[in-house]
Amino acid sequence: MMQDMVMGSGEPGLRFVEALAKEAMESDAAASGPDRGHYPYVRQVRTGWHRDAGGAWAYDGVDGHLWEVFCEQCGDADGPAENQDSAVHQLRGPYRHKHTAAHVANEHFKAFRAS
Fold first, then answer.
1. pLDDT > 90? residue 14
2. How would you classify the pairing of strands 50-51 and 41-47?
3. Which residues are within 8 A (CB) of 26 and not within 5 positions of it... i.e. 6 or more apart?
4. Helix/strand number for the chain, H first, E second
5. Chain-centre distance of CA 92, in angstroms?
6. Can you point out the beta strands (E) in the chain?
7. 3-class SS at 50?
């Protein structure tokens, strides 16, 4: 699992990360919707997830040392990464370096560029 790899002794190589991103892009959720374009973005990993009074996901803080890729068009519905489809969870990360997360988001965007 990606999270285990990042939290371990070293960050996975970019080729491995790209392979995980491609797996997420091939999920059923990634292929749905009228717009084939995907617009992923990088953000700090959000922590303290809970449901607000209206039932929507809310968070209490961010981890200043980890980054994630969020892509709504892949079916990422916010909330804890563990609640996402496994392919979306892998795309999300976390990534130890913002540069790595930005690279994954950029590759994902290029693969799903709207025509």
1. no
2. unpaired
3. 87
4. 5, 4
5. 2
6. 41-47, 50-51, 57-58, 61-70
7. strand
Q: Which helix (H) or strand (E) holds 92?
A: helix 86-92
- What the block records as the tokens of 44 is 């700090």
Q: Where are the alpha helices (DSSP H) in 27-80?
A: 28-31
Question: pLDDT tens-digit profile of 28-79?
Answer: 555 554 456 788 999 999 999 999 999 999 999 999 999 999 998 888 988 9
Q: Which two tokens stand for residue 67?
A: 């980054």
What mean pLDDT do residues 5-32 have?
54
**Percent of the chain whose pLDDT exceeds 90:** 45
Q: How far is CA 31 from CA 36, 53, 99, in A?
A: 7, 32, 26
Mean pLDDT for the chain? 79
Q: Where are the domains of the chain?
A: 2-111
Q: Are 43 and 29 in contact (CB under 8 A)?
A: no
Q: Are 112 and 37 in contact, with CB atoms under 8 Å apart? A: yes
Helical pair 14-25 and 98-111, crossing angle rounded to 10 deg: 40
Cα–Cα dist 72/63, whole Å: 21
